[in-house]
Amino acid sequence: MATFRIREVEGMRQVCIDVKNETVRAAHGALSNMNGNISFTPKLPNFGDLFRSIFTRESRIRPYYNGTGTINLQPSLRGYHVFDVQPGERWILEPGVYWASEGGVNLGLTKEPFWSSFWAGDGLFAWKTTMAGQGQTAVNAPGPVEVIDVKDGEIKVQGRLVLGRSGDLAFKSKRAAPFPRSIISGQDRLRIYQGTGKVLVSWTPYWNQHLYQRMTDADDVDGSLFQ
């Protein structure tokens, strides 16, 4: 079983993965460095995935790493959350959230309901990464992550606080207040997750990421620090 670690240095965070004759996958362009006897294999996606990638900013190329050693992914002012995908679970991640996973975690794509994604501001075709199978996975997060259990109920959030959800939770969007009071409410449309399952929520950002974003209007530091 691969070991996922989050290392923090000088206010930046980095996912480090120790493997021993094992296979892991990571997001496109995520590698910083690796040491040991590890092979790097970017595999081409099938035609269907390439077609779907037209309608999403998710890259369909997630390279494989196989062997023994340590893989260090790109550092970030943002953070990461590591958790286990359990057998029988199916997770749906928001665009850009997937970062890395063990080889036993199967990745796919799913499309949100047309009107729900449209009114939520996600566009006409909202394709999102799915995860199933078994193994550890690491996801991008703007701040600390809380796992919330929803049992035959719903959770309503303002903005993109939810990073992912288990597959039994349905997604929709609606006004914060009935029309015409919604015009003067000062709130955008709510993102609602209904049913039974789990949600990954990041309520507050890390202070240095928030400060950087406010000062530069940029989401993050792109690429290696030494490029």
What attributes does this structure have?
227 residues; mainly beta; globular; 7-stranded antiparallel sheet; single chain; disordered C terminus; 4 helices
Set down the secondary structure blueprint.
Blueprint: E1 3-9, E2 12-26, E3 31-41, H1 47-52, E4 64-73, E5 79-85, E6 90-93, E7 98-102, E8 105-111, H2 114-119, E9 127-133, E10 135-141, E11 146-158, E12 162-166, E13 169-174, H3 181-184, E14 190-201, H4 207-216
Antiparallel strand pairs: 1-2, 2-4, 2-7, 3-4, 5-10, 6-9, 6-12, 7-10, 8-9, 11-14, 12-14, 13-14
Classification by helices and strands: mainly beta
Number of E-state strands: 14
In DSSP terms (H or I, runs of 4 or more residues), the helix count works out at 4
- Looking at the structure, what is the overall shape? globular
Q: Uncertain runs with pLDDT below 50, 5 residues or more?
A: 221-227
Please trace the helix and strand order, writing H or E for each element. EEEHEEEEEHEEEEEHEH
Give the assembly state of these chains. single chain
